[in-house]
Design goal:
Length: 125
């Protein structure tokens, strides 16, 4: 299986992941119905986000936490939603890529998802 090593690989991974997300019964509605995501806008941001996180190529400058608070205040983003996000992400990586960067992508996503889940919960108190 292929190593995760180029921007092109990230694009492939992110596209495959959001293909799953869009039709997913547990979290798809956040993107389709709550935030009504413009995918042509969102996907390039996510390529840059992951390129920045994994390859240190600083192409993403943003605040990933901040965009989730308004969504969370419309519909609670619960821990199980984040656990499911991580499950889909991990599955997409394991189906397509191998190696150190693939493992790092799972590790970093898991950490961010846990932190985000916690912050969303705190924000609802
Ligand atoms: C259940 C879990 C999640 C849901 C439902 C969700 C939903 C969304 C939605 C709807 C947007 C688009 C906002 C907009 O443009 O209108 C977004 C943006 C984003 N999400 Fe998530 N998200 C989740 C978890 C995560 C996790 C775990 C990460 C990081 C590992 C992440 C990283 C990002 C980033 C980087 C953006 C772009 C921020 C920007 O505009 O600069 N999300 N998310």
């Amino acid at each position: 299986m292929k190593k995760l090593e180029t921007r092109e690989d990230i694009e492939t991974l992110v596209n495959k992941f959001y293909d799953k997300v869009q039709t997913d019964e547990t979290i798809g509605f956040f993107f389709n119905d709550v935030a009504k995501v413009d995918w042509d806008h969102h996907l390039p941001k996510m390529y840059s986000f992951w390129e920045t996180l994994l390859f240190g190529q600083i192409s993403y400058k943003g605040n990933p936490m901040a965009v989730h608070f308004p969504i969370n205040s419309q519909v609670p983003m619960e821990k199980f939603h984040f656990a499911h996000w991580v499950q889909l992400w991990t599955q997409t990586i394991e189906q397509n890529f191998t190696g150190e960067m693939a493992e790092m992508a799972i590790y970093k996503a898991t950490n961010i998802a846990n932190l985000m889940g916690h912050k969303m919960e705190v924000a609802r108190r």
